TrEMBL record:
PROSITE patterns: HELICASE_ATP_BIND_1, HELICASE_CTER. GO terms for molecular function: 3'-5' DNA helicase activity; ATP binding; hydrolase activity; nucleic acid binding; RNA helicase activity. It holds the Pfam family DEAD. Residues 13-24 have a biased composition (Basic and acidic residues). Keywords: ATP-binding, Helicase, Hydrolase, Nucleotide-binding. This is ATP-dependent RNA helicase DbpA. Its EC number is 3.6.4.13. One of its GO terms (biological process) is nucleotide-excision repair. The gene is dbpA. Residues 285-438 form the Helicase C-terminal domain.
Length: 764
């Protein structure tokens, strides 16, 4: 732990001396002065007047710089911190084109969620700009209003799903809007990653193609949290050249950032491994203590159930220590109504609420200012998200506190013991792969249904297009004619792409007693999420799956309140289809290529919610699934294994595999549930000890490729994570995995350290 002076809120948390050992590091971020710029000469006067009336006398330098790029016709990404005012960077040119008598331009705004678009609409309307006819166009827009939006709105707020399924397929009805389209605003651009980001990249290429049909060439303005190499990422997302503005000129108050590791408990998990106190229980106590000290705080929790658990735990603690404060704590649930959202934000602003537990719904641009502290319950996936969440505190210029509470997980454990991996280094690059044929193919069909494809379109959709088209014709997806490739089927081509999922039709989750549709689960996730006996959470309510009907894609559930969670267990085989790249690491070899993964869910575990204690395991009988994807793998030679002496080779490789899966999200913007792994002492395709880590999405999502590119840093971090864990033989904080199909057996912690050291000895 650093010896710098603690912030007052942190001092209060440490009132109990036994807690001091839970803090592994405190980072102090100094205050930053803001740097103003002049309003651009072309700024629309009504907008300047409204901004001035709201106390914004001049833009920050990054706002003005990004706006100037956009106004000059250059696509731009503004990648700066939370509360840095990115919205003004796109509002300035957007409103200017609407107020320009010679342009009469239109603006299309895209956000990943309907809630964020609704917030933006409210903010726009509050400016009372008479010429700006703004409207949302999403699944909640009534049918009779949609015609008005198409014909009269000049600032349309929507999401990629609606662009894909409605606007582009019906582009002829939007031709007036598209002909005058000057700007496409892409908000929260860092969220477009992995398979979802790859789909959105192809949707944006389809949009550019349709705009060209109407002689329009819109400028893209992207707003993002800080991200590594934002210009390259934005260019890959849009398919256009993009410049970056990433020097944040907005002011910030001083901040303290603590890394917090919950203590070990007397409970024992698999094979007697020690179990830490859960991050949610720890966060609940911290939230209660902050509320008791009148420190207005927000706890970010990864799941809806977790958010409610933290709020409930804080209420229980306050009921004992300070009963009058129980109503000062609430949870921010999915499924809230707009009126409830407004009431909750109002309660935060006027301090009726002092503590709030939320999912990342409040990470995405919702305007909540004045908070004093943020608790981050478990690593949120990326440094970008971590700083986005931390930025919710101190937005009014006051000193703030952020506490990252580690979960019992290899990555969380590594980070709280390696602060240099969190602080003082750039955030991750956003990983996406628009050229993935499983992503590209359905969008080529959709594009052909919008306008026949021509050979010139290959430059827009990417280099794999030319290879895919002949096979698509052979399979009857497209028909080749002298003028191009045509979609000739009667069904809607846009239905081929499930942009937020992967694989076949989604499984519908239906309440057995009422017949009510609760939600859907991606086909690729159904075996592990809605198998028989699974605990399914919907809008904070718990259900237990009674039946999973794979033929009809239906899961029947009943309401329940179990005190446990469920985790599927699976077994996996892997076959190398094609080795694309390889690098010699001395006698070891690192490879990247195409693999075929056969996976079968064979059972599930039950763990107590509050403690993580293992309650039991039950078998399942589900069919195997086959996935063709991309993987990174490494091998050791027989001489290297012999040099390591007598060890449990299979257990060492298995432990190294688990830990490397846990650490890859630090180097590729993914969740550990987006990737999988297989290890074997003798793989039939290599004839050697081989450890694989693969993308869990058809065709790959770019994560394994990033692992190959960052292998030396990634596998060094894996070794360090295992070495720094205080357990003797392995635990969930280092080498045990919650989804291991073999019950975390065999595992050899010390053998994994020796094996990784031997592998890294030859790393370039």
């Amino acid at each position: 732990m650093s010896h710098q002076r603690s912030s007052p809120p942190l001092d209060r948390l440490l009132g109990d001396p036994s807690r001091r050992e839970r803090i592994t590091h405190v980072e102090h971020v100094p205050a930053r002065e803001g740097r103003r710029a002049r309003w651009p000469d072309w700024s629309p006067e009504p907008l300047v007047q409204r901004m001035t009336a709201a106390g914004i006398e001049a833009p920050w330098e990054h706002q003005a710089a990004a706006a100037e790029h956009a106004h000059a016709g250059r696509s731009v990404i503004v990648a700066t911190g939370t509360a840095s005012g990115k919205s003004l960077a796109y509002l300035l040119p957007a409103v200017a084109t609407i107020y320009d008598e010679g342009q009469d331009g239109t603006v299309l705004y895209l956000s990943p969620t309907k809630a964020l678009a609704a917030d933006q609409l409210r903010a726009l309307r509050a400016l009372r700009l008479t010429r700006v006819r703004a409207a949302t166009y999403d699944g909640d827009t009534p049918r009779d209003e949609r015609a008005w939006v198409r014909q009269h709105a000049n600032y349309v707020l929507t999401n990629p799903d609606m662009l894909h399924r409605s606007l582009l397929p019906a582009h002829a009805r939007w031709r007036g809007f598209l002909r005058r389209l000057r700007y496409v605003v892409i908000d929260e651009a860092h969220g477009y990653r992995g398979v979802f980001g790859s789909h959105v990249a192809q949707i944006l290429r389809r949009l550019r193609r349709i705009c060209a049909r109407y002689h329009a060439d819109p400028v893209f303005v992207l707003a993002s949290a800080t991200t590594s190499d934002p210009a390259t990422t934005a260019s890959r997302l849009t398919g256009a050249d993009v410049v970056a503005v990433d020097a944040d000129a907005s002011p910030r108050g001083p901040a303290a950032f603590a890394l917090w590791e919950p203590p070990l408990t007397e409970l024992r998990g698999e094979h007697g491994a020690p179990v830490r106190r859960t991050a949610t229980a720890e966060a609940a106590d911290l939230l209660a203590d902050l509320v008791a000290e009148n420190v207005q705080s927000l706890a970010f929790v990864r799941s809806r159930r977790g958010a409610e658990s933290v709020a409930l735990g804080a209420k229980r603690a306050l009921a004992e220590a300070a009963p009058s404060l129980v109503d000062k704590v609430a949870a921010y649930r999915a499924g809230y109504l707009p009126a409830e959202r407004r009431a909750l934000e109002t309660a935060l602003r006027d301090r009726t609420l002092v503590g709030l537990a939320s999912t990342n719904a409040l990470e995405l641009g919702v305007d909540v200012s004045g908070l004093d502290a943020v608790l981050v319950c478990g690593w949120p996936g990326t440094r970008a998200s971590l700083w986005q969440q931390a930025g919710r505190a101190g937005r009014s210029g006051q000193a703030s506190l952020t506490v990252l509470v580690a979960r019992d997980d290899p990555l969380d454990t590594f980070l709280v013991h390696h602060p240099e991996a969190v602080f003082g280094r750039p955030v991750e690059a956003t990983v996406l792969d628009p050229d993935n044929p499983y992503v590209l193919e359905p969008h080529l069909c959709a594009a052909a249904s919008e306008l026949p494809l021509t050979e010139d379109d290959a430059a827009l959709f990417g280099p794999t297009t030319a290879d895919l088209l002949p096979d698509m014709v052979r399979r009857g997806l497209l028909r080749r004619r002298p003028t191009g490739w045509f979609w000739t089927r009667r069904d809607r081509a846009c239905d081929l792409a499930d942009i937020r999922g992967a694989g076949g039709p989604p499984v519908q989750v239906i309440e057995l007693s009422t017949g009510r549709l609760l939600g859907t689960v991606d086909e690729s996730s159904a075996h592990s999420m809605v198998h028989e006996g699974a605990v399914y959470i919907h809008q904070g309510e718990s259900y237990i799956v009674q039946t999973l009907d794979l033929e009809d894609s239906v899961a029947l559930v009943e309401a329940a309140e179990p005190d446990y969670s469920t985790t599927a267990r699976d077994v996996t085989d892997i076959r190398i289809v094609e080795q694309l790249r390889s690098t010699a690491w001395g006698e070891a070899t690192l490879c990247h290529g195409t693999v075929e993964v056969t996976n079968q869910v064979v059972g599930y575990q039950m763990r107590r919610l509050q403690t993580g204690e293992m309650l039991g395991e039950k078998p399942l009988d589900l069919p195997p699934r086959t996935l063709r994807t991309r993987a990174v793998w490494w091998t050791l030679s027989p001489d290297q294994l012999e040099s390591l002496g007598d060890m449990d080779v299979a257990g060492a490789a298995h432990a190294a595999e688990h830990a490397s899966i846990g650490l890859l999200p630090l180097f590729a913007t993914c969740d550990r549930w987006d990737i999988g792994g297989v290890s074997t002492a003798l793989h039939p395709d290599t004839g050697l000890l081989t450890v694989f880590v693969y993308d869990g999405h058809e065709g790959g999502a770019g994560f394994a490729e990033r692992g190959y590119a960052e292998a030396a840093g990634w596998l060094s971090a894996t070794r360090d994570a295992i070495a720094s864990c205080e357990c003797e033989a392995g635990c969930p904080s280092c080498i045990q995995s919650p989804k291991c199909g073999n019950g975390n057996d065999p595992l050899d912690k010390h053998g994994a350290l020796d094996m990784l050291a031997e592998l890294l000895r030859g790393a370039p």
